[in-house]
Amino acid sequence: MTHSARKPLVAGNWKMHKTVAESVALAHAVAEARVGPRTEVVLAPVFTALGPVAAALRGTNFGVAGQDCHWEPQGAYTGAIAPEMLRDVGCTHCIVGHSERRQYFGETDAGVHRKIVALGRVKLVPIACLGETLAERESGATFSVLSRQLDGMFGSLDAEGADALAANLVVAYEPVWAIGTGRTAKSSDAQLAHAFLRDRLRDRLGDVAERIRILYGGSVKADNAAELMAQPDIDGVLVGGASLDAAGFSRIIQAAGSS
Ligand code: PEP
């Protein structure tokens, strides 16, 4: 399968920003964007705004994502949200393993693995994030870190489990040093990392790897999105800061339409 056969996906991670009313207003503004016929768009507001944003987007092709979930369907896990509960309020996707969850909340690859499996059970699309820190990049460890993370996150998925998930699996390569710093990876460096990830996914899961979309994330803006998405293994973008501005995010969505 070629780059052009995988539908481009543009996801906006609003992190811990915006009230419910502000989130709904932003969703309405983004929904005005001209979206290419093959482009998928997903918005990830805070938990309290998921239901209202999903309701505001009903009747559009836009998806809605949680920014995290638990792996159990219910139970004594104060503060946590189950995949079933995300689906109940209209979510279609869920981000897991974001570097901010890893850095501030102790997220591990093994936990991400359990979340991916739990999301697959209720047919929510996991957007599973990974990426190296600046120290790891500078010490030449980027590819060994990516390998280790992939093994931990997808290690015990067998080919059958992967096949069931694959149409529904998104990986996001987000070098930690590029997130929220204004420092974007060079498109050629990002492509190398994406090609490496796809090769490793192919070793592990077989041909299904061709169908898995691999997004780039890390200071994506309207003026660098097109070049990144033109790379053969970059199938879309996960956007943080720039997704809070409807006009700029709409330009990123349009860039995906021409990739
Ligand atoms: C992110 O939160 O996933 C992200 C990539 O943030 P930013 O675009 O602000 O770097």
What does this structure look like?
The protein contains eleven helices and eight strands. With 259 residues, the chain is α/β, with parallel strands linked by helices. The chain has one domain: TIM Barrel (Alpha-Beta Barrel), CATH 3.20.20.70. Strands 1-2-3-4-5-6-7-8 form an eight-stranded parallel β-barrel, surrounded by five helices. Strand 1 (9-13), helix 1 (20-30) and strand 2 (40-44) form a beta-alpha-beta unit. It is globular and about 45 Å long. The chain starts with 8 loop residues before the first strand and ends with a helix. Phosphoenolpyruvate binds at residues 13, 15, 174, 179-180, 217-220, 238-242.
SSE diagram, text form:
Layout (H helix, E strand, L loop, with lengths): L8 E5 L6 H11 L9 E5 L5 H8 L5 E4 L16 H6 L4 E4 L2 H7 L3 H13 L3 E6 L3 H5 L3 H13 L4 H8 L3 E4 L13 H19 L7 E5 L7 H5 L6 E4 L6 H12 L2
Parallel strand pairs: 1-2, 1-8, 2-3, 3-4, 4-5, 5-6, 6-7, 7-8
Bound molecules: phosphoenolpyruvate (PEP).
Which features would summarize this protein structure in a list?
alpha/beta, single chain, TIM Barrel, 14% strand, eight-stranded parallel barrel, 11 helices, 259 residues, binds phosphoenolpyruvate
* CATH-scheme architecture: Alpha-Beta Barrel
CATH H-level homologous superfamily name: Aldolase class I
Largest sheet: 8 strands, parallel, barrel
Helix content: 40-55%
Poorly predicted ranges: none
**Quaternary state, please?**
single chain
Strand-residue proportion? 5-15%
Mean pLDDT: 93
CATH topology: TIM Barrel
Number of strands: 8
Could you give the order of the helices and strands? EHEHEHEHHEHHHEHEHEH
Principal-axes shape call: globular
Q: In angstroms, what is the radius of gyration? A: 17 Å
Strand order of the largest sheet: 1-2-3-4-5-6-7-8
Total individual domains: 1
